[in-house]
Amino acid sequence: PLDPDADPTDGALSEELFARARRVIPSGVNSPVRAFGSVGGTPPFIDSAAGALLRDVDGREYVDLVGSWGPMILGHANSLVVDAVREAAGRGLSFGAPQPGEVTLAEEVISRIGPVESLRLVNSGTEATMSALRVARAATGRDVIVKFAGCYHGHVDALLAEAGSGVATFAMPGSAGVTASTARDTVVVPYGDRAAIRALFAERGHEIAAVITEAAPANMGVVPPSGGERGDGVGFNRFLAETAHAAGALLITDEVLTGFRASREGYYGIDGAVSGDGAWAPDLMTFGKVIGGGLPVGAFGGRADLMALLAPGGPVYQAGTLSGNPLATAAGLATFAQLDEHAYKAIGRASSTLQQLVADALTAAGVPHVVQTAGTLFSVFFRDAPVRTYADAKAQDTGAFARFFHAMLDAGVYLPPSAFEAWFVSTAHDDETLDRIAEALPGAAKAAAQ
Ligand code: PLP
């Protein structure tokens, strides 16, 4: 551990570690966006974190707006979560046998999300979406999956075409190493394009197993679905459910990122409630991030008849040595225990304040920008018109973002190192933290304007 009283160095230790990392780890990182490829520079190597703050190995401190890309909704090293993990660790790290925490965690998710009647735990969001696709294909006896450009569902072969997140950050069309036959079974549609969906179903409806969509896309920046939340007619997700069901296909809503963050009941809590009489529901849903409280967890669930297809009761094989790990369920449960209405109010307040601060600073510096939200989630696009599709998102000024990003980092604020990501706040983002961000913003906005 670092000496907390030592003077920060100028980043020399991070530089040295990154050089060592690049010799033994591809591009020096275990997940692409961490390499700072699109913004340039050396990523700080993190030594420790507490509340809303990160501290790097050079002793520099940052207000964190990444939150490990979503899980750290209570801030870092939340004492109740850490205590729960410590207590669980004392009773054994993994059993490979049923344990009570798995049941309680499934009950917690099911109690919050109406369409989830049955849930299985996995180790990542990627595993969750991969498994949900398998269930959908088994249930329908069909092969084709429909996804939207700019939506990211993890690094599942079938879902990498025109994906968001790191694939967007590095402007990749998809991924090498995905077979032509896999790619053929995935149809990509522009986000929000109802006419394209209608035309696709008219032509190939009988081949389509499922449509998968982020409940509210947040991996090309935040692009809320049309309708629903804003009350202008049938929400896009409801439209997808109705169109898919009319053709005997399924709808999978991916709430890995939005789940238990956009609201207490995830994005479905916003969209399902206002999209009419609540009669619409996805068939399957996927979760991750928040449900593991910072440990590696994902989950997929939905209609009991579909989930009953899973082995050993049914013919769809799906398994995991560490699935339902006792430390992971302890962290998830200790997180859920603190995620009450009060917590969501605090997150909503911090999110709104931050949105206003950023918009004011960018406006004052004359930097074109749009702030978009989905519940308490938000992101900032460096362009002057609303973003409704991946093509819109790609039309932003990523150079301005990179200058803004580095000026914020130099001033002690750690933003997602990509213009295509949501900004993550937590219950630990109190007034003092927000003041620190407010101080950094005018200088960063000026840097973006250059
Ligand atoms: N789905 C969505 C909507 C995500 O945002 C992510 C990760 O960012 C995933 C799936 C994949 O989750 P994981 O990185 O845990 O595999």
TrEMBL record:
<comment type="pathway">
    <text>Porphyrin-containing compound metabolism; protoporphyrin-IX biosynthesis; 5-aminolevulinate from L-glutamyl-tRNA(Glu): step 2/2.</text>
</comment>
<dbReference type="InterPro" id="IPR004639">
    <property type="entry name" value="4pyrrol_synth_GluAld_NH2Trfase"/>
</dbReference>
<dbReference type="InterPro" id="IPR005814">
    <property type="entry name" value="Aminotrans_3"/>
</dbReference>
<dbReference type="InterPro" id="IPR015421">
    <property type="entry name" value="PyrdxlP-dep_Trfase_major"/>
</dbReference>
<dbReference type="Pfam" id="PF00202">
    <property type="entry name" value="Aminotran_3"/>
</dbReference>
<comment type="similarity">
    <text>Belongs to the class-III pyridoxal-phosphate-dependent aminotransferase family. HemL subfamily.</text>
</comment>
<dbReference type="GO" id="GO:0042286">
    <property type="term" value="F:glutamate-1-semialdehyde 2,1-aminomutase activity"/>
</dbReference>
<dbReference type="InterPro" id="IPR015424">
    <property type="entry name" value="PyrdxlP-dep_Trfase"/>
</dbReference>
<feature type="modified residue" description="N6-(pyridoxal phosphate)lysine">
    <location>
        <position position="289"/>
    </location>
</feature>
<keyword id="KW-0963">Cytoplasm</keyword>
<dbReference type="InterPro" id="IPR015422">
    <property type="entry name" value="PyrdxlP-dep_Trfase_small"/>
</dbReference>
<comment type="subunit">
    <text>Homodimer.</text>
</comment>
<keyword id="KW-0627">Porphyrin biosynthesis</keyword>
<keyword id="KW-0663">Pyridoxal phosphate</keyword>
<protein>
    <recommendedName>
        <fullName>Glutamate-1-semialdehyde 2,1-aminomutase</fullName>
        <ecNumber>5.4.3.8</ecNumber>
    </recommendedName>
</protein>
<keyword id="KW-0413">Isomerase</keyword>
